[in-house]
Design goal:
Layout: H1 3-14, H2 20-30, H3 41-48, H4 52-64, E1 68-71, E2 76-79, H5 81-92, H6 95-111, E3 114-121, E4 124-131, E5 146-148, H7 153-161, H8 164-177, H9 182-199, E6 202-205, E7 212-220, E8 226-234, H10 240-259
Antiparallel strand pairs: 1-2, 3-4, 3-8, 4-5, 6-7, 7-8
Helix pairs in contact: 3-4, 6-10, 7-9
């Protein structure tokens, strides 16, 4: 069971309104975000930490409701169109995405970078919009792609914008998930927090992918939600110094312009 799931289980003990059966069903759906397209009940039980009989009941129910489909040939499950419908409803009704897109398109065109809008889901950031220049050499990051919190510009910018107490909780979860690489992640996270304090942005210069340089800036929405605006490109197109000394500052100004739209 991952750390965020454990935290939710602890919340359930304290909150009488919390419906644990629903939480378990959603845990089953989230298991498919781990990168595996098709899984059997045993695979899902291993990822979620739920008992296999519980998983069997959940997958049966989710299949009946149209959120999973079952392959009798493979004897495994995969996500079905019900999940897509929910995701599309969220993205299509996201006002900040609609208002920001023209600005993101122009930034992508003028800088020859891939410009993304991301939100947090537990220990990941997810693209809800991505704008690319006409050149095919730019990064292609489709809507729905997940990014790790600790090593990407998007994740670091989100963590930097969080309240200190909440950030400490998330960092503990990251440390537990990545015990072997945590000392280096923590060191670079400290640098990112200082960057944000000084300049209002965070960088990932080959940290997530050695061939990618990127910057991230938090967007503070009027309802209190935090999202992150990013720009990135292959290192051979955009060197680290250009990201640090030029693009990141431009991205920070773009984020403030979008906030002034009243999103």
């Amino acid at each position: 069971m991952n750390e965020d799931s454990q935290s939710i289980k602890e919340t359930a003990v304290k909150d009488r309104k919390f419906v644990e059966a629903l939480s378990r069903g959603l845990d089953v759906l989230r298991a498919f975000s781990q990168g595996t397209v098709v899984m059997g009940n045993q695979d899902i039980a291993r990822i979620t930490g739920l008992p296999k009989p519980t998983v069997s009941r959940m997958t049966y129910t989710l299949t009946k409701l149209g959120y999973l489909s079952y392959s009798s040939q493979l004897e495994k499950y995969q996500l079905d169109s019900g999940v897509l419908a929910l995701g599309y409803a969220y993205v299509s009704n996201l006002r900040v995405r609609q208002l920001a897109k023209p600005y993101m398109d122009e930034f992508a065109r003028s800088t020859n970078t891939s410009v993304g809008l991301t939100c947090r889901d537990r220990l990941s950031m997810i693209y809800v919009e991505n704008c690319r220049p006409p050149e095919a050499t730019s990064l292609r990051m489709d809507v729905g792609i997940r990014l790790p919190l600790g090593t990407t510009a998007a994740g670091r910018a989100y963590l930097a914008a969080m309240k200190e107490e909440e950030r400490a909780h998330v960092l503990t979860a990251l440390a537990n998930r990545h015990p072997d690489t945590w000392p280096e992640i923590e060191r670079r996270m400290a640098t990112a927090l200082k960057e944000y304090e000084d300049y209002g942005f965070c960088l990932s210069l080959g940290d997530w992918d050695r061939n990618v340089n990127a910057a991230g800036v938090p967007l503070f929405l009027q309802d209190g939600t935090i999202m992150v605006l990013t720009c990135g490109a292959p290192t051979y197109l955009v060197p680290a110094e250009k990201v640090k000394n030029q693009l990141a500052h431009q991205l920070e100004m773009l984020a403030r312009d979008i906030e002034r739209l009243g999103v």
